[in-house]
Specification:
Layout (H helix, E strand, L loop, with lengths): L2 H12 L3 E10 L5 E9 L5 E7 L13 H21 L13 E7 L2 E7 L15 H17 L21 H6 L3 H15 L5 E3 L8 E3 L6 E3 L6 E3 L2 H11 L2 H25 L6 H8 L2 H16 L8 H17 L2
Antiparallel strand pairs: 1-2, 2-3, 3-5, 4-5, 6-9, 7-8
């Protein structure tokens, strides 16, 4: 799309008179486009965020510049577009706060998303580390999201959410030099897939994808490229791994799980859900460490030596494998 087409689309979707300024917030992973903050005049939206996907074959920071990687990214932007399209009629009534979508446009592999500027809506905070109030706000968001979508079919989304899902990462599995973990990669994946209760998972619920209110007590989430079906523990384990290192992740495990399930119960009660919180918790709580092992499998193949490959992660993974050995004849 030419810049004139993009600008016309923005003005049409926002009913603005004109664009007064544009600032690039960041480039997309591997050079697939950009995210811009655009200032407007003559509209109820003083500023908006525009995510403009212009696929190319950029340089992957860790060398994973393959056709499979390219196709996965293309699908991720299609999924994100489908997600925002599906949320347009909810008019901000989601249990889990996210940017409102003002418009989407696709031309072949090129995608344009016109989104609410969360900074202007009071969610301007970004965190590199969190205190108790802040991590609880994120965990509460995850509980709300999972409760709201419990039992939902991932129509137009990833059948199995998360960017590290085994079926989309054969190259990383092949590169994995831990033969025991490689042998158990599929059983770990099956245990998560076969959970009696499935929901939609955000799929990339790292700390960097949460936007905070000034006091840290509320958050909104962004980046829905890998939203899809799955067990909620995949999001929770990944989030904890993005916040806490090694000893802290281990120390925080029970507290985080207790708080998550308390909040899950609150939101399930709010929507008068069946199943109940206790039924879901009985199944999901033991899967937290299985989800942790699943991500550990990806990391060991994708980036050996990464700081997330901690002693705690290794011990959790070995314990999960040991328990699976007992289950498999």
């Amino acid at each position: 799309m030419e810049i004139e087409q993009v600008d016309r689309f923005i003005l049409d979707r926002t009913n603005a008179d004109r664009i007064t300024n544009r600032i690039e917030v960041q480039s997309l992973w591997s050079g697939y486009g950009s995210i811009q903050k655009i200032a407007l005049e003559g509209t109820d939206f003083p500023s908006i965020i525009v995510k403009h996907v212009q696929p190319g074959r950029g340089s992957h920071p860790r060398g994973w510049n393959t056709d499979l990687s390219h196709q996965r990214k293309l699908k991720s932007y299609q999924v994100e577009t489908n997600w925002y399209d599906s949320q347009k009629n909810k008019a901000g009534n989601n249990l889990a706060r996210m940017p409102a979508c003002l418009g989407t446009r696709k031309e072949e592999d090129e995608v344009l998303l016109v989104l609410e500027d969360l900074d202007a809506s009071g969610f301007a905070g970004r965190k590199g580390s969190v205190n108790q109030t802040e991590w609880r706000a994120c965990v509460r968001w995850l509980a709300a999201f999972h409760a709201e979508h419990l039992g939902s079919a991932p129509d137009g989304l990833w059948e199995s959410g998360t960017y590290w899902h085994l079926e989309t990462r054969p190259d990383e599995l092949e590169r994995l030099d831990d033969q025991i973990l490689k042998d158990f990669a599929s059983p770990i994946d099956r245990v998560l897939k076969n959970s009696p209760f499935l929901t939609l998972v955000h799929g990339d619920a790292k700390l960097a994808n949460f936007c905070f209110k000034p006091d840290g007590s509320e958050v909104a989430a962004v980046d829905f490229q890998y939203v899809g079906g799955g067990c909620g523990m995949k999001d929770l384990a990944y989030f904890v791994g993005s916040c806490f290192r090694d000893e802290d992740a281990e120390t925080m495990e029970v507290e985080v799980l207790d708080y998550y399930f308390m909040q899950l119960g609150f939101f399930l009660d709010k929507i008068e859900s069946r199943p109940t919180k206790d039924e879901v918790e009985e199944v999901w709580r033991p899967l937290y460490r299985v989800a942790w092992a699943d991500f550990h499998r990806f990391m060991k193949g994708w980036s050996p030596g990464h700081w997330k490959l901690s002693d705690y992660s290794e011990r959790v993974t070995r314990e999960v494998i040991a328990s699976l050995r007992e289950m498999i004849p």
